[in-house]
């Protein structure tokens, strides 16, 4: 079986150093930057949520702000040429797996922040959820 190079690789980013390093790893696994997709999944905000405020940010505004941040993150010499940036809202694990399946991704490269114990129970593990839900192989990077 030919594992490399992949034609469609997805990397979820949360703007942590680990997720940006995962982009670098994924770049080494694809034919070119046109085959690399980067996604950020933000939380859904609904009226009544803490921090909702009086003037809620519309999803379009939030999407634009996140897209700008993603563009800044990939606007580095090692990441030049990455143009397929995606923004979604909802449960990160579910949305990443859904996006990967709907767009025919061949591999998901995701970091694990290495939480354990109660932190893992309370915060959950996005990488673990993606691993359980994904239709394709998942490469989990550990620090």
Walk me through the structure.
37% of the residues lie in helices and 20% in strands. Strand 2, helix 2 and strand 3 form a beta-alpha-beta unit. The protein has helices at 17-27, 59-74, 92-102, 117-123, 126-133; strands at 9-12, 36-42, 84-89, 107-112, 138-142. The chain is an alpha/beta fold. It is globular, with a radius of gyration of 16 Å. The chain has a single domain, classed as Rossmann fold (3-Layer(aba) Sandwich). A five-stranded parallel beta sheet has the order 3-2-1-4-5, sandwiched between helices. The protein has five helices and five strands. The model is unreliable at 118-123 (pLDDT under 50). The protein starts with 8 loop residues before the first strand and ends with a strand. Helix 3 (92-102) packs parallel to helix 5.
Short summary:
With 143 residues, the protein is α/β, with parallel strands linked by helices. 37% of the residues lie in helices and 20% in strands.
Q: From the helix content, strand content and strand pairing, which structural class follows?
A: alpha/beta
Q: What's the total count of β strands? A: 5
CATH homolog superfamily: HUPs
Which of globular, elongated, flat, extended, rod-shaped describes the shape? globular
Q: Supply the CATH architecture.
A: 3-Layer(aba) Sandwich
Beta-strand residue percentage? 15-25%
Low-confidence stretches: 118-123
Biggest sheet: strand arrangement: 3-2-1-4-5
Overall domain count = 1
Report the sheet with the most strands, covering strand number, pairing sense and barrel closure.
5 strands, parallel
Give the N-to-C terminal Cα separation: 28 Å
**Count of helical stretches:** 5
Helix content: 25-40%
Briefly, what CATH class? Alpha Beta
């Amino acid at each position: 079986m030919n594992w490399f190079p992949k034609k469609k690789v997805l990397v979820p980013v949360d703007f942590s150093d680990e997720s940006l390093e995962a982009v670098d790893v994924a770049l080494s696994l694809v034919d070119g930057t046109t085959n690399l997709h980067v996604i950020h999944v933000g939380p859904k905000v609904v009226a009544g949520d803490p921090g909702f405020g009086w003037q809620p940010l519309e999803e379009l505004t939030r999407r634009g702000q996140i897209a700008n941040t993603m563009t800044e993150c990939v606007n580095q010499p090692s990441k030049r040429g990455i143009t397929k940036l995606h923004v979604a809202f909802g449960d990160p694990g579910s949305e990443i797996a859904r996006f990967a399946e709907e767009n025919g991704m061949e591999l998901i490269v995701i970091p694990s922040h290495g939480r354990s114990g109660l932190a893992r129970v309370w915060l959950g593990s996005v990488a673990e959820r993606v691993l359980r839900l994904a239709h394709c192989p998942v490469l989990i990077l550990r620090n």
